[in-house]
UniProtKB/TrEMBL annotation:
Plays a role in cell envelope biogenesis, maintenance of cell envelope integrity and membrane homeostasis. It is found in: Cell inner membrane. The chain crosses the membrane at residues 40-63, 70-89, 101-121, 142-160, 166-184. It is a multi-pass membrane protein. This is Inner membrane-spanning protein YciB. GO terms for cellular component: plasma membrane.
């Protein structure tokens, strides 16, 4: 059974590791560390530290709520795999690819559901946002396109801009984009809101 925690604790557990990554990178970005005879840039060292911090944050969420979303689990797996590859191969490109793969995976999953005439968002979030089925389908299509757009944008940023620019984008740009996306869905939420007469009788 899922347990509720305060919004402040939830936000700290979800965004704390990301903010910590940003702060650590800004502190160590110009330093080079020699470990076992190999030189590592600050970005790689910060990535190596971020992986266990993120996993500890997820473990804390599980202990407090007894629930982790599928997106959190997939994100954790990709962070471990691609963050680990970046550290192991001393190549920051792998970690920068991670957001692209996350958004492609979830955008693709939503696309499969749409092709089957289903909204998988509706199945996992129905209790959070009471919408009619048509509203869920429209929202799912928009989020699918939004995810594909974020994947493309991440590729453009990390391939054409400096590491520091990508870190700013990853920390603040993606978060702001997601926030603004849902702000602009206000009309959809209002138009397709589930009326009391539409709710199933108990």
């Amino acid at each position: 059974m899922t347990k509720q925690i305060s919004p402040g604790v939830k936000a700290a557990l979800e965004y704390g590791p990301i903010i910590g990554f940003f702060a650590a990178y800004m502190w160590l970005k110009d330093r080079v560390f020699e470990i076992a005879g190999t030189e590592y840039q600050g970005f790689i060292v910060v990535t190596a530290c971020f992986i266990p911090v993120f996993l500890l944050s997820m473990a804390a969420q599980w202990i407090l709520t007894r629930h982790l979303s599928l997106m959190q689990i997939v994100t954790a797996v990709l962070i471990v795999v691609f963050g680990g590859l970046s550290v192991w191969l001393n190549d920051e490109r792998f970690f920068k690819m991670k957001p692209t793969l996350i958004y492609l995976l979830f955008g693709g999953a939503l696309a499969v559901g749409i092709m089957r005439g289903e909204s998988w968002l509706e199945k996992v979030m129905e209790g959070m946002m009471p919408l009619r089925h048509e509203g869920w389908m429209l929202l799912t299509k928009r989020i699918m396109l939004f995810f594909f757009g974020l994947a493309a944008l991440n590729e453009i940023i990390w391939r054409t801009q400096t590491t520091e620019t990508w870190v700013y984008f990853k920390t603040f740009g993606l978060t702001a984009a997601i926030f603004l996306f849902f702000i602009f869905q206000g009309k959809l939420f209002k138009e397709y809101a589930l009326e009391e007469s539409d709710e199933p009788a108990e």
